[in-house]
Amino acid sequence: MQKRLVLDQKQISIILDRFCYQLIENHDDFDNTVLLGLQPRGVMVLDRLEKRLEEISGVKVPSGYLDATFHRDDFRRRNIPLKANETKIDFLIENKNVVLVDDVLFKGRSARAAMDAMIAFGRPRKVELMVLIDRKYTRDYPIKPDYCGREVNTLESQYVSVEWALNGFEKDAIWITEKEVKS
């Protein structure tokens, strides 16, 4: 299988630092801001971001995990049922600035579903999207990230693989690989 490195551990760290400074610039004192990691993979990004943001700013921003499985428009169209993940939000988002955090923006379906799912916790004042990787030219919905680590041009036959050392990989890294063809 052919792999092409998109971001290495150092570059990911630099991007997370940049995200923190952008958030500080755009959200002043964070009094009215919350962060939501999209389950399952956005949670890994959120955990790192939240820790680094607290180190840089000295502020602990309210954060949680959001599962949008049952809000997806393709939920009933799959051969194998999707498995839901935990939603962990112990605050209301009514009139808050919400930053949705995910690893890869592909078709836009997860981000759209997340916007539907978060309404159960209140009506936000504003919603922003933060992603490590934006797979340009692949959108099914007109969704664009407000914070983007790297834009990549990919084909439908390719997959963006995000590897975290915490999940057993040697180092944090993001790769573009060819999807396996089943014969």
Automatic annotation (TrEMBL):
Transmembrane segments: none annotated. It comes from Echinicola soli. Residues 7-158 form the Phosphoribosyltransferase domain. Keywords: Glycosyltransferase, Transferase. The gene is pyrR. The keyword Glycosyltransferase applies. It comes from the Bacteria. It holds the Pfam family Pribosyltran. This is Bifunctional pyr operon transcriptional regulator/uracil phosphoribosyltransferase PyrR.
